[in-house]
Amino acid sequence: MFYRENGQFKTTYRADQQVFPILQDRVAIWALLAAAFVVVPFLASDYLMRAILIPFLIMSLAALGVNVLVGYCGQISLGSGAFMAVGAYGAYNIFVRIPGMPLVPALLLGGLCATAFGILFGLPSLRVKGLYLAVATLAAQFFSDWMFLRIKWFTLDTPSGSVSVSNLQVFGLPIESAASRYVFCLAVLVVMAVLTKNLVRGAIGREWMAIRDMDVAAAVIGIRPMHAKLSAFAVSSFIIGVAGALWAFVYLGAWEPAAFSVDLSFRLLFMVIIGGLGSIMGSFFGAAFIIVLPVVLNQVLPALAGLVGAEISTVGISHAELMLFGGLIVWFLIVEPHGLARLWSTGKQKLRTWPFPY
Amino acid sequence: MNLRTLMVATALGLVTAGAFAQAKQQFVPVLSYRTGAYAPNGAPWANGYVDYLKLVNERGGINGVKLQFEECETGYDTARSVECYERLKDKNGGASFVQPLSTGATFAITEKAPVDKVPVVTVGYGRSESADGTVFKWNFPIAGTYWVAADTIIQAIGKKEGGLDKLRGKKIALVYHDSPYGKEPIPLLQERSRMHGFELTLLPVTAPGVEQKATWLQVRQNRPDYVLLWGWGVMNSTALKEAQATGYPREKMYGVWWAGAEPDVKDVGEGAKGYNAVAMQHGAEPQSQFVKDVLAKLHAKNLGTGPKEEVGQVLYMRGAMSAMLGVEGVRAAQERFGKGKTMNGEQIRWGLENLNLTQAKLDALGFAGVMRPISTSCVDHMGAAWTRIHTWDGKAWRFSSDWLQADEQILKPLVKSTAAKYASEKKLTPRTPADCQS
Lengths: 358, 438
Prior knowledge:
The complex is a heterodimer. Chain A is mainly α. Helices cover about 70% and strands about 0% of the residues of chain A. Chain A has a single domain (about 45-355), classed as ABC transporter involved in vitamin B12 uptake, BtuC (Orthogonal Bundle), CATH 1.10.3470. In chain A, the strands form two sheets. In chain A, strands 1-4 form a two-stranded antiparallel ribbon. In chain A, strands 2-3 form a two-stranded antiparallel ribbon. Chain B is α/β, with parallel strands linked by helices. The N and C termini of chain B lie far apart (about 50 Å). The interface of A and B includes residues 46 and 319 of A.
């Protein structure tokens, strides 16, 4: 009833091709952005921002990058953790070694380091496909683990191999408080998401999708597989690299190579699979599912047990959390194999036809 | 439904928090890992830690101020540890002090603690250079660091050989967990190797360390005179089994304290006989008064945490001692800022910095024979650099050496220079003597 595009006539191609062609969507997204930028920093508690919203935003960005590669171009990658690590250590080295280096260029250059690394480890994609490529990209993961543990130069010869940053500022404003960190991450995410959305709508994005759907057919109609695949690796690893730098700089503050282990690569892949392959929206859903849900479960379970008068130990909670989390993954994949994003669009469709579904 | 339960939960939480605020309470967050790959080592530590806090309450609190604590499961994951820290730091009037129990989390929380004004207490682990209180104002590696452990192990080996000068030309291999934790002792060992002329071989083992065939092949080829084991969790028992398979004498192996507890050798049993490990002051202390108190006041009333048989084991004692040092910091703060009052982070930081645990105080706490007196200062946040070596006899850990003290001549310059490097990277100005008075 409320969500219906009747009467919204498009008189130009421009209007027809915009990202959100339906007025209600546009209003909702602007309202959401306004709330996220203006309301949340004032209302949310320090804990909510530091421990839930900031990791959610950063992981959404990373999932967005993985989605470009896995969801749009169909190249399964298990090297996402490595791309994050390269972004983080690249940005760190640039930030620390060049005196007076501002934060934003350092992050972007860190992303570019990841781009170079991503293209290098994307080369096997020209020869191997599917699951074999996933195994080949694992090499990137092990290589980065080795590189940042063994080559002391990258970690500035610190005895323990752990590095840290502080005194972050953007345009002279310190990025110390939870609110400033949150807004900074949000701004980066919004800019990147808008750019990515437009990229996947354009010629390059169509090339990626053609390669994903059938690479031989795509090559026949004149799409260069090398160009398409490597550009997907480049764009994806740039976004993941920036996310990695943010994860290290803004969220952790001090980190070691184990922060970007193969575990993280798997989690990122699960995010896009659960969220929805080939969907920008899905990246956010997936990140929320993987990052926020365990924490919420962890805090809600004791309260729930308290309601029935039981007290569970932290071990019990953390086991229950894992079991429920696993159960939910299976349940969602059975109910909607195309991910949460599809669930979302089904919901929107239902809303359109409500109250007279056909 | 989920949202509603969340709201109910928060409402409930607010109500209970409000009720507790009436009585004088001091909140202690407990970051622990009872699940995951390292749970066998994390669980006894957490049991000891929580039992000590419970015992303080049984004894009437700190001058009447009861301790309130909440556990948060980290699974030894840095990101999750940070989440736990953020969750608990402002709860119930603010965290008194935090003990991250992970080198990775210590590094991350070290950057956050000065802003949040929460002292970071890392008893025997964490970053070794944080002993320098002029740079690391909020870090307290009380009663030893990994550098102290490494230094005293070399001294113990020297004693065995009949003098440190006899180490010239010997070969010592360090088999270490490939992480910041495992790398911590390297600078100190390199320094010692330069001084005494022994050859140091570094043999990293990829975490978690279940696959060590290649490492022990190298040991078999090199035949080092001694092997230092900087392992953790499953890596330790694997290393001991590999040593057994390779035929490397266990008597010539020295582990760090994370490699010197019951879970590490239990599975190997007789095979680990003769294996040595450094004990940061205490070992397994089932005879101590503290253990008797815990058994009588907590476990007899079913208030204890974890299995009764593990009370007094090495890691259990480690947890208890860690809690005790933190709690004594609060007590010291109360003595200056007002007895029977709830202390804030800044006051407790002062307390931890001016800790003076005399023998009489230790006796009263039931820690007689467990550890030596400790006193910290503004410059020295470590307080004591004493250790002992204990040896596994197939059934239990028994002390096999006298007290050893880390050599200040080596430790001090290393701490100073590494801390200075940190300060210059962070553009920190070291604290002045005037700041120390505050």
